[in-house]
Amino acid sequence: MSDSLWGNLFSRNKTWDKQVAALWAQTPLFNDIPYNEIARLVRDMVPRDYSEGETIFSRGEEGAGAALIVEGEVEIRAGDVTLTRLNTGDFFGEVALVLDVPRTADAVASADTRLLFFLQAGLEEWLNRRPYYAGRLSKNLANILAQRLITANAALADKAGS
């Protein structure tokens, strides 16, 4: 067997890795983190394709990490209610980067979709190798989660007041 055959089967497209790193760099999760650090992380992230209507994860399932929408569209649902619709460049599931808790909603591909998963294990490894940048990411993650809590609280207060 040819080494090039096996190399092609298991190698990733460097152009694709660069494009995905650029998408992550545009998210608040990677504020103040150099592109080359993001590009290193992307090499260890896991891509996966989903067909329209396919469930990505369900409420109550164990979470393993966050996902970036490389292309396509994802709906986050609570039962029959669509909470939000996310598109290329958006990410979701970030709670699973820091907490071992069940998923709090369903995620469903609402179009053919390609995701890239940033797993908790990858974050922990990066934290050990590059604590300075991982610390920045942790601060960014705390800001994102706090902002989402503020927004949720405001929505609940508005609903209670009406």
Describe this structure in words.
By secondary structure, this protein is α+β, with helices and mostly antiparallel strands. It has helices at 3-10, 14-25, 35-42, 120-129, 131-161, and strands at 46-50, 55-57, 65-71, 73-78, 81-87, 91-92, 106-109, 113-119. The chain has one domain: Jelly Rolls. Helix 2 (14-25) crosses helix 3 (35-42). The longest helix is centred in the last third of the chain and has 31 residues, at 131-161. The radius of gyration is 17 Å and the shape is globular.
Helix percent reads 40-55%
CATH H-tier superfamily: Jelly Rolls
As residue ranges, the low-confidence spans are 6-10
Q: What percent of residues are in strands?
A: 25-35%
Mean pLDDT equals 90
CATH class: Mainly Beta
Q: How many structural domains in the coordinates?
A: 1
CATH topology: Jelly Rolls
The spatial strand order of the largest sheet comes to 1-8-3-6
In short:
By secondary structure, this protein is an alpha+beta fold. 43% of the residues lie in helices and 25% in strands. It has a single domain, classed as Jelly Rolls, CATH 2.60.120.10.
Features:
4-stranded antiparallel β-sheet; 8 strands; Jelly Rolls; alpha+beta; 162 residues; globular; 43% helix; 5 helices
Task: Lay out the secondary structure.
Elements: H1 3-10, H2 14-25, H3 35-42, E1 46-50, E2 55-57, E3 65-71, E4 73-78, E5 81-87, E6 91-92, E7 106-109, E8 113-119, H4 120-129, H5 131-161
Antiparallel strand pairs: 1-8, 2-7, 3-6, 3-8, 4-5, 4-7
Helix pairs in contact: 2-3, 4-5
